[in-house]
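Quick board copy: two proteins, each given as sequence then tokens.
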Amino acid sequence: MPQIIFIDHAGEKRPVEAAIGATVMEAAIKNGISGIVAECGGACACATCHVYVDDAWKAATGEPSHMEEDMLDFAFDVKPTSRLSCQIKVTEAMNGLIIHTPERQG
């Protein structure tokens, strides 16, 4: 299973294993990553799973869809690397993926 490294706003790193085909949000919730609330359960209907993809991984995770971009309008402190973690599907190529969690969700 690929490993995802979550880094919180204070810089604390927490590596977790993620199932291929799952979403980054599902891996975070399953492993108790703080800072990811996921109120809509992964339906891309809120912005409470907002994360920042590390610059080195931006190409591997792809670009947000138009629907995801619309939901990011509701997120706190949106940056060019902002994504909704419910919209990032885990692949084998994402082993070592670095995800930063925001200080708070919108």
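And the next:
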Amino acid sequence: MVSAWGSRGAFVGLFAGLIVLPHLLSFSQKEVAVFLVINVLVVVSYRLLTLTGEWSLAHVVITGVGAYASTLLAKRLGVPVPVAMPLGAAVAALTAYVLSFPLFRMKAFYFLIGSFAAGEVIRLCWKRFREPFGGPKGIKLIPSVPDIDIGIVDVAFFDPVNYYYLCLVVVTASVVVLRRLEQSRIGLTFHAIHWQDKLAESVGVDTRRYRTLAFVIASFFGGLAGALLAHYLGTVNPNQFDVESMVYVLVWVIVGGTATIYGPILGVVALTVVNEIVLRELGVDQARPLIYGAILIASILFLPDGLESLGPKMKRAFVRARERSDRGGTRG
């Protein structure tokens, strides 16, 4: 009972902290908080694909597909932004479904390289065609989320605080859905395919179908993150979704861990804090790739299961220390 109340209290405290957080930050830090919340959705959606044992280098590009699709729907076709966002995410999911036919003929390293090639083809199309993608400069003056004005309530979403709360609601709902999905029979099948794909096939599981399902769902939520980003920045271009951005996503996920849904969240939060508070304040932001690389190597060497494993390790060490102390007291 105490443990249940403790977990509930920690959750309530965390949620209260997230609500209060933007009011304690400077303007630039508020914008960082918006990007952080969006990145949480990127890494959590990416983790869903890793549950089947596959790692993709196209996830950031798929996020860009959601951004471009939502932008074109809103700017060129006049679709309301709240409708364009989920439609853009659906286009990202459809793109993933089409890519799944060639990509899932490959596995492991070959899938990784194939996904990189597929992503680069899409990104280079954005750079090559000025119509409708805007070429290398991308698309500007993207419609923003419309303000809410119902008399006593007037919410303008160009304000980073209000957009932060919008993203927090969308991302929280998405994380809950992804967590429930992982705990369902489908999620358990994903895990089974990861660890024993041949055994799963022997009992009638269509592993390719389930890998495709994970890829499509992960891409939907990744595309939703891209749509949130595009309509906040007001611009979208191919350089936002290059391989360097994908490497950062990989580092966030690996450093945080993939055993639970909270691992990637820990990774992106910890490294964002390192980047914004340590690197930027020390004026060594240009060294970020070098420092991220060092953090990644240190994590693989000393925390191969990610930051999420640190808590259980500390708990086990504390229990062992207490047991040794009790035995020493008994002998005395």
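Board note added afterward: Confidence is low (pLDDT under 50) at residues 1-7.
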